[in-house]
Amino acid sequence: MSNQLLYSGKAKDLFETDNTEELLVVYKDQATAFNGVRKEKIPGKGSLNCKISAFIYDYLQKNGIETHLIKNVSDHEQLVKKTELIPIEVVLRNKIAGSFAKKFALTEGKSLNPPVIEYYFKSDELGDPAINESQIESINIATAEELKNIKSQTLKINDLLKTLFDKDDLDLVDFKLEFGRVDNKIILIDEFSPDNCRLWDQTSHQSLDKDVFRKNEADLVTTYQKVLNRLEGAK
Ligand code: C5P
Question: Domain span at residue 129?
Answer without folding.
Answer: 85-219
